[in-house]
Amino acid sequence: MNETMVCVVGNVATRPVYRETVSGPSARFRIAVTARYWDREKNSWADGHTNFFTVWANRQLATNAAASLSVGEPVIVQGRLKVRTETREGQPGWMSADIDAVSVGHDLARGTTAFRRTPRPESNHASDRSEPAWETDPAPSPPVDGSAADGATDAHNSDAAGQLRPEVTLVT
């Protein structure tokens, strides 16, 4: 895999355009990335050159980006860089830099956001699962000595629905 992965920090420059395609949802928007530098003569920060990238998102990322992003918001985009040269209006040499996004999120160094998990589509083929649903065993049998087996029946190790949570151990 000789792909150029980039992580770009900037501001949303255009409203996300969302489309339903044959291959699934797709969204695109532009991001503006301006370099800042310390100007010693003025003794202050100054803006440098601004680069614009077209960000492409697909599937669930497209749906979530279109619902979450607005012009001017600070974002971080991670994805594959694609630089293309094309001919426009008969003139060769037009270059565009696109990012095929893997991840898009608000820049929490510059503000706050409220995360809402998107619901997963329900599957009608629950009985076709290749693995048993170990987490939803209704009544695990207690061990012979009366202690909890691996902490599976402890209240602190299961959620409200009785499903097991992974145990986390901190090492210092």
UniProtKB/TrEMBL annotation:
<dbReference type="GO" id="GO:0003677">
    <property type="term" value="F:DNA binding"/>
</dbReference>
<dbReference type="InterPro" id="IPR000424">
    <property type="entry name" value="Primosome_PriB/ssb"/>
</dbReference>
<keyword id="KW-0238">DNA-binding</keyword>
<protein>
    <recommendedName>
        <fullName>Single-stranded DNA-binding protein</fullName>
    </recommendedName>
</protein>
<comment type="subunit">
    <text>Homotetramer.</text>
</comment>
<feature type="compositionally biased region" description="Basic and acidic residues">
    <location>
        <begin position="119"/>
        <end position="132"/>
    </location>
</feature>
<feature type="region of interest" description="Disordered">
    <location>
        <begin position="112"/>
        <end position="172"/>
    </location>
</feature>
<dbReference type="Pfam" id="PF00436">
    <property type="entry name" value="SSB"/>
</dbReference>
<dbReference type="InterPro" id="IPR011344">
    <property type="entry name" value="ssDNA-bd"/>
</dbReference>
<dbReference type="InterPro" id="IPR012340">
    <property type="entry name" value="NA-bd_OB-fold"/>
</dbReference>
